[in-house]
# Entry
Amino acid sequence: MLQSTGIALTAGLAGCSGGSGDGSDGSSGTTVGSSGNDYEPITFLETPAETPGDTEEMWEPFAEYLQSEVDGLELNVEFADNTSAIGQALLNNQAEMTRSDIVLLANPDEIDVVGIVEEGGASVYFSALATLPDSDIEETTDIEGRSIAFADRPSTSGSLYPNYMLSQAGLDTGEAPYGDPVDYDGSWTGSHRNAVQTLINREDIVACGCDIAVLLNHVPEDQWPDRVRERSGRWDGDVGTESPELELVEASTSLPFSPIISRGNWEHPLRSDIEEAIVSINDGTLREPDGDVGNPLTAVTEASIEEYQPVIDVINTLDIDLGQL
# Structure
């Protein structure tokens, strides 16, 4: 399910299908207009369920910047329910761009890398396992035989890495994340926030695995390892200040932030200008969004699929077939 933010003139998903560049299929070429410079709108997809805190307001500065830098560009930032929906939209020529490492790794021959995102001056982020303070879960191995909540099944930080940490602790992950684990029960809730709320509200769930973005404010400062303190772009004065308090079980190694990607068969007169403008984003380029939210990215640097070898290693360890996306 897709929702338009209304940042630009609403084109709707049906009007953003991919094509050959002649404008006949709705995503490329030019429309009929008095000036001859009315280009077809571009759709950039995001998942509010996948990106912690993602809102329409967060993406307005990004869209405004690109439209100010690229003459004639109409950019629609739209939301999809999950990573799988985004992947299918790109492969079916219903959108042009997104931010996702999993969509890239599942379709390396059909997707191009534009650049890697930085957030708060950091180019890496973290996943973590957490529990309740009164839980008897003291280390990762204690989750054996118990139930744990995850985010979306293809989520790197909300599913793949938490299951990888369980695997590294010696637990049999079975067919997870697309099937049943052997040594524990998994509940995939669709979002990072839902994973945390499931831990808080369901007695049978003893832990959650998700992006630290939704855990930092719940877990006391002194429980986080130095690598998170020093390298997370989300570390601020609010760490450990939110109720209810949660307890850290394990934090992951650093993960490369998701890349901004384009579908490989996308042809549009403005494509090179759009991609050049994206990799020109530096700290301070984007204005601060309205409301109590921050920008979803603060800079973009050129990158290639090789940057994601750590994620590929996790996929291989878990023996995941990304064709199931």
